[in-house]
Amino acid sequence: MEWLVIIITLVVLWVASLFKILHESLSASQAAVLNDVGVFRERNVLLVIAHPDDESMFFTPTLNYLSSRGCNLHILCMSTGNADGMGNVRKEELYLASIVLKIPQKQVKVLDHPDLQDGFGKSWNSKLLSKIIKEEIANCAIDLVITFDNYGVSGHCNHQDVHQGVRKLLQDTSHKEVDAWELVSTNILRKYSGPVDIWLSLLSAKFHLSGVVHCLLNEHPRRSLAAMAQHKSQWVWFRKLFVSFSSYTYVNCLKKIN
Question: What pairs with residue 181 in β-bridges?
Fold first, then answer.
């Protein structure tokens, strides 16, 4: 009987969370962004990722939110994801996903640098990453950068290296005018709690100083699934489960990098 009560409670909470997201997507009001002061409105934004599909697996709540707020979105992907020899395929899949996410293909850049190859244990130089990001910022007049945090959601070394590259860039005082935000990694229970995590994310953001953390709900979760489905080479059963049950499909918490 106790297990039945727990299961019913979880189902009700799951459904309530989905209704919360659906309400936000159908309403004309702002999506749930804690302490929204317009920091993410009408900006030239550069999302810096490590591999094709990072944008769809982890950052779609952010991309959907920014797109609806008039931001000009760019993606800089540091590798083709060629660990399994499918780099050219994965590169094209990212372009297809960007169309679903309403990001012009000309504003998506995928690198194939010999020193930035995909793979666990393949360390990327932060100075090189910083140089590349700096050039992209200058070329596209970027004033807001978004990337992984120091853990990188999944703990992948390439995700972590990208974060360090952005931090290296920020050490240059000439780029203090560029805001940088990181996607907050959560523990494994929250990571696989699906839409239920929106309540924990909102609560967590509430206890941070105003303006330091923003919690963004995904206004178009079905678009997230459609974008990830464009990565056909990666769209295997366990990634389908991940996208369905991952909290990163439904909510992103962004923390300002100081």
Answer: 146, 256
Q: How far apart are the first and last CA of the chain?
A: 50
- Residues 249/226, Cβ–Cβ less than 8 Å: no
Q: Read off the pTM.
A: 0.88
Residue 94 near residue 54 (C-beta atoms within 8 A)? no
Contact of 82 with 112, CB cutoff 8 Å:
yes
- Nearest in space to 135 (alpha carbons), one of 109, 160, 171: 109
Torsion over CA: 113, 229, 59, 31 (sign): positive
Give the residue among 257, 193, 247 at the shortest CA–CA distance from 217: 247
Category of 153 on φ-ψ map: left (φ > 0), alpha (ψ -120 to 50) or beta = left
Q: Is 152 left (phi over 0), alpha (psi -120 to 50) or beta?
A: left
Nearest alpha carbon to residue 148 among 40, 253, 35, 36: 253
Residue 230 and residue 214: Cα distance in Å, rounded? 28
| Beta strands per DSSP E along 62-143 | 72-77, 108-110
pLDDT digits (tens, 9 = 90+) for 6-54: 555 555 554 555 555 555 554 434 444 434 546 777 789 999 999 999 9
SS3 state at 10 = helix
Residues in contact with 51: Cβ distance below 8 Å, sequence separation at least 6, in sequence order: 77, 78, 79, 81, 90, 118, 158
CA distances from 240 to 68, 211, 229 (A): 26, 34, 9
Indicate the residue type of 179.
D
Residues 6+ apart with CB under 8 A from 39: 179, 211, 214
